Amino acid sequence: MKGIIRYFFLFLSFLLLQVFLARNIDLGYGFHLFLLPLFIMILPFETPVFILMLLGFLLGIIADSIMNSYGLNASSLVLFAYLRPIVFQTFTPKEGYDVLKKPVLPEMGWTWFVFSYGLLLFIYLVWFFFLEVFSLNEWVLIVRNSFFSFIFSFSVALILQLFFRKQPLA
Amino acid sequence: MQNLIDFLIRFRVFLSFVAFQVLCFFLYVQFVTYPRSVYFTAASNVNGQLLTWENDLYSYLRLSKSNQHLHEENALLRGVSFDHYYQIQRAEIKKNDTVYQQSFRFFPATIISAPVNGRNNYFTINAGTLQGLKKDMGVISSQGVVGVVFKVGRKYSLVKSVLTSDINIDVVVGKKEVRGILKWNGMNPKIGTVTGISTDINVPKWCEVRTQGATGIFPKGILLGKVKAKRRLENQSLWDIDLLFHEDLKNIHYVYVINSLIVDEIKGLQRHIPTETIE
User: Fold this and answer.
1) CB A32 to CB B31 under 8 A?
2) pLDDT tens digits, residue range A105-160?
3) Contact status, residue A135 vs residue B183, Cβ threshold 8 Å
4) Which among A32, A64, A74 has the least Cβ separation from residue B117?
5) pTM, rounded to two decimals
6) Positive or negative, the Cα torsion across B218, B219, B222, B228?
7) What is the ipTM of this complex?
8) Is residue B112 within 8 Å of B45, Cβ to Cβ?
9) What residues of chain B lie within 8 A of the CB of A132, using their CB?
């Protein structure tokens, strides 16, 4: 129960941060800040994939309705949630996943987090910008936006990981 | 039947993924095709209210600048008298009041959300059906053209800005008033694109691009920007012109919605143009 309330507050804070802060950071040249995928990333390992997709859809559709992006965030977050278990399986540590740990940087280590979140975020961004442009003629725009947004969003995600301290094992 | 159930159970994750994607696609289609449905957009009351609060907060940061703009515009408007009036009795009796008929009315609105990051950007303004807004009305600012009203809610509306791929506003370039069409390629919110001008016409650098006013949505001669560069389109004898917008679309807050009194007449006339049939 305590966990559910905690994630509910995280849900709200990620939504508010994305809609009222990240959206207004404008560096130009395709540097956009995406915070929403990080919320799906840090949900506990044992979360069923259906719940992940449902949360992604809800988060995306609320953000979309305020940001006038009509289903773009929702679609990309559902894809992110769908791929999360597959990517996690690919990068399973040697000794397997510890049920007590959470998928955040301080608990899982640099290598694991950089590879799995990096891969997922990159797929997310390419899907997002492809859907937004929806024309392969403008591939330069898709590649530019995905690349620069990846650098920006990934660095901010690493910084945000400082908020998730390593919890002492009870 | 058993096979079907097995199939559904086996691919339940993938199938629910597809179902969610179809739902997203449905919402997208609803946004694009049905102008009246304002649910899940910023033109709905709840989201409009949220964006108004956000705007109230940020607007304190730019009060002095907006004041200066309004001041300049006031000074300009004092010098203007009959600019947007249509002359009925050409140069016969100018003293009569019926000589000029008003063809455009302007009313003010505030932009409460203006993203410029997306491929297609829709602005939100704080005016709707209560103020008499309709779809396809033009929106300008004191500095240039902003866009066209796209979706109208009760108190808020969405504006399809000039930063969308198919805005297609009719423009004229330079002193010769060569006709072209405005588009946007998504790369830079300061630069628009003008197409449809043949390469045998010389387009000098830094010549002005203004609205053509052919559709009656915008008055004639509203400044959009200046020609920054031009290239030949591949395999076509057309210019691909880069247009530097006069309006800084990133920092735009006060706009005017144009209620055109002549657009219905123009549309009605154009309906009579015979369409050629291929035999």
Assistant:
1) no
2) 888 888 888 999 999 999 999 999 988 887 777 888 889 989 999 999 999 999 98
3) no
4) A32
5) 0.77
6) positive
7) 0.83
8) no
9) 118-120
